[in-house]
Amino acid sequence: MKGLILKDFINLGRSFKSVGVALVALAIIFIPMGNESFISGMIVLMFAMMVITTMSYDDTAKWDTYALTMPITRKEVVRSKYLLLLMLDLTGVVLALALAFVGSFLKGTGITVETLLGILIILMIAVIFGSALIPLIYKFGPEKARLMIVLCAAIPTAVLLIVAKLNVPFPAIGNEETVFGIIMIAMALISLVIFFASYFISVKIYQKKEF
Amino acid sequence: MNAIEIKNLNKSYHDFNLKNVSFNVPKGSIVGFIGENGAGKTTTLKAILNLINRDNGTIEILGMNNTSEDKKIKEDIGVVLDGCNFHDSLKTGDISKMMASIYKNWNLSVFQRYLKKFELPENKTVKEYSRGMKMKLQIAVALSHDPKVLILDEATSGLDPIVREEMLDVFMEFIQDEEHAILISSHITSDLDKIADYIVFIHQGEILLNEEKETLLEGMGILKCSEDDFRKLDKEEYIRYRKNQFGFEVLIKDKLALKRKYKEAIVDGVTIEEIMLFYVRGER
């Protein structure tokens, strides 16, 4: 399984470079505007998306068929993708933190609790996003899943927009610290549950798959 | 003792069925698995490798059940599939690192020896490799974890005659160990004329022929004759016949027996390709 993850990182080598360039560009534009939480979010999501990139690389090379002729179980193939998702999400978080830190240092404001919480929320969103996509890709293949990726992003956005239009009051941040803490814990739990549920669903799908 | 034993393998798709496929790959031998495109070669190989769910039938590899001991079996087999399965951006060093953590017995020095022997550059990515180089790379990988059985699906198809010959030599060398065995599917039957010990011929999902190659080539023959002569033949004496503008061509089961019976008959030797053509395109 280590070999599978190693292969994904080598394949992502080029993507890392282009993401790096994009990040530097974004940092130059947005940090002076005081918008480092936006770019922190971008970083984490960009890294989360890379799992999907590796899956379409595998698809192009017809890699999975070959991998399963080796002493690797189907479960291990699936597990390697979920581990990769976590590793990439965490890498994104570390980079986002570093950037937020540099940004706040340059402005001399010091890092704010809001920024840290923002990164945490983005991490949860990234985990949920990846967990929603991996089983879809296993079921429908990366080509068809592309459309679903768009839907995955569009549906929550649409819901949020509608909610905003209807003037439903959002839980106010900072007023009630305990309520906010509860929401954060609940979100963390939800993303964990979704992550594991998604893993088991993917294993089920993958075990039935024919190559 | 058999390296691979397949018994009554069935698999149905909506437009194609594998019907009761049974054959063995004895240790110390090379079995050539032939048939047209779409005859069921790759499906059978995929069933052996557990890449598809079969409807029924059993497959044993090195005495182990291929579904329950999948992982253990796969340490001991080397596989080359049709086409290259390595990602474009990999180099041989990356592949070796990866394989070292996948196979218990991965042997870097053996791998490097094959790379040198096959003239595969270590500083190029797979993307820059030619089709033949990609095939050779797959063969090198398949041989570098001390496998006991090789399963090769069209492993020589993309290669020019010189490289093909080189690969056939490598396979012959592998088989010198009596514990080793090779199952090779190919539609380049001349390769199998050279190296195979047994021929298994699949047609429309059914095994039509499963014989020792020498028995086949020594026994069978092609009789060229007129229609009148053909009518004299017993149904038992021939397998298939083909009609052309000059007369009849008949695939004979036992050319020596036929020559004894009809002294003046002209019976030629036969190649695996001709046998295949008669079976598929000839009439009974």
TrEMBL record, chain A:
The chain crosses the membrane at residues 12-31, 37-57, 82-103, 115-138, 145-166, 178-201. This is ABC-2 transporter permease. It comes from the Bacteria. The keyword Phosphoprotein does not apply. Keywords: Membrane, Transmembrane, Transmembrane helix. It comes from Acetobacterium paludosum. The keyword Transmembrane applies.
